[in-house]
Each structure stands twice: as C-alpha cells, then as structure tokens.
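Pilot study result, target chain (261 residues):
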Amino acid sequence: MNGRSEMTFLEHLKELQRALLKVVFGVAAACVIAFIVGDRILNLIVYVSPPDFITNRLLCNLAAEVNSPKLLINQVLLAFTNIELPGQLMLHLNLVLIGGVVLSLPYTLEVLFNFIKPALKAKERIGSRKFTTLVISLIVLGLLFGYFIIAPIFVHSAVNYALPPQIVNQITIQSFTSSVSQTVLALGIGFEPPLIIQYLTKWQVFKPEGLSKNWPIAVVLLLTTSAIITPPDVFSMIVVALSLWLLYEFTLLLTRKKIAH
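Predicted structure:
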C-alpha cells in the first residue's frame, strides 16, 4: 500500500469515506446491542433516583454522622409517567442512540487513529495512541463522575425545587432520562479541556507560566464551562468547577515536569 503522502486527493477521499463507513457501521452495530438491552440502559439511568443508589445511601449515612439533614437526598421513590402515545417507543429509540454512540466510542476513535496513522512518523504514532487512550480515559472518568456525583444531586435539586406549593410534579420518563443522560454526557465531554491544554502547552501555543499567571481568566472559563455543562443548580456547578480546577492544576503540574525534563 502506498504511503499516505504519495496518495492523490481522490485516494485520500476514498480512505476517508471508508473510515466514515466503518464508523457508521460500528455505531449501527452498537445500536443493535443497545436496542437489545434497552431496558437495562433505562434502569441504569433511572437508578440514580432511588434511596438505595450508592451516592444517596452514602450521603444519608454522612447526614446521620454529622447531624445535617441537608445532606439527605433522593429519599422518596419517584414515579414516572408517559403522556404521549408513541412516547415509550421514542424513549427506546433515544436510549438506543445514546447507548450506540457511547458503546461505539472506543471503536470510532480507533478507526480515526488508523486513518491518520499512515501519515505519522513512529514517534507521532506512539503519541497519537497515547492521546487516544487519554481521551477515552477522561471521557470515562467524566461519565462516572457525572453519573455517581452530579446526576443524583441534580435529580434531588430538580425534584424538590418548587414555587407555589399547589403545583404537583408529574415527571415524564422522557424528561427524566433526557435530563440525566445529557448531564452525564456533558460531564464526559467536560473532562477533555485539561488534555487539550496539555497538548497546547506541549505545542507551545501556551506556556505553563502564562496559564498560572492568568488564573483569574482560567477560573472564569471553568465556571462558564461548569454553568454550560451542568444543570441549573449552584451546588452541582460548584462541584464540577472544583473538579475541573483540580484537573487543570494537575495538567499544569504534569506539563511543568515534562518541560523540566
């Protein structure tokens, strides 16, 4: 096979077309799996709300230890409704799409890596492989953080927020699943900026010293990012902002060490 640099423009397009077709088929195969286990995906999303969810139980135990009732969250079992005739079918299809995209993500990144690999040198291939691994790791970390930390807090805040007491919450299953899944997926994406910062400093677009000096700008950007990717809940936003700040500082520390070496 010819090197990527020796390929014509049309050959590049054909290679890109093959890569995109592989991605589409990969997502489609993952969607089939998600369709089969759609009820389990639904149970996984809904499970952040019952009192026996691990985060809710731990905060309940902590509330008893420190005598702080405010730490008690999600102690009432929620009931969900469906108000549209094809509502449950559309819910199943949405779950299939979400599950398909998430399940196929490692394969998608692998296909994209293989597409650009022929144009890379040996050292660049190692760096690209490392970058792909870090991207997947941070996405998984963000998804876990969003699922186990932010989602239960958001559900509790949203369910217990009320204006006039005569308004009764009747939560549709579609509203619940879309809100929780969007929150969790947003956290998966939100954990990527530290990795981007690390590579931008590595490519000397930014310098670690400059990023440290301009920490007020970083704080504003992190708070803005947290406000965008989290639900309209101040506590959730602060938790996410602090987490992103720790990742930011950890990234700067790693960058300084690499430069020092």
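One observation from the pilot: The beta strands are 80-81, 171-172. A full batch analysis is planned for the follow-on phase.
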